[in-house]
Predict the 3D structure of the following.
Amino acid sequence: MKLKNKITIIILLTTIGFILSFSFRDDGKKNRILLDVMTGSMKQAHYKDVRLDNKFSGKVYKLYMEKLDYTKRFFIQSDIEKLSEYKTKLDEEIKNGNFNFFELAAELYEKRLNEVENYYKDALKKPFDFTKNET
């Protein structure tokens, strides 16, 4: 039961972070309200006191990154290095109402997605020649 509740809270935070990073980019007031609701719910609904600390940040970071690019197809090493700077700082971001990590993650994800889209559009411009042996 304990593990199930911890996983539920981490999934809740990850989902809210994902929503915040893509849905309300330019509206800091909405982000702050959502964050307050989330942290309030976490404190009241969870049977055990959940501490917002570096350990918590590490778990949220790991789960968020696994869910955001679960196939490891989009982020490149430099993106991971930039995002990993926040690995133990998410608790402070939550406490201070900052969304730098989620905004950076969304920005990098969108950038890589656009790169992939451009790559396959370029590849599909040329007709396929099935008569050539390319191996």
Observations:
- The helical segments are 2-23, 28-45, 54-68, 77-84, 90-96, 100-125.
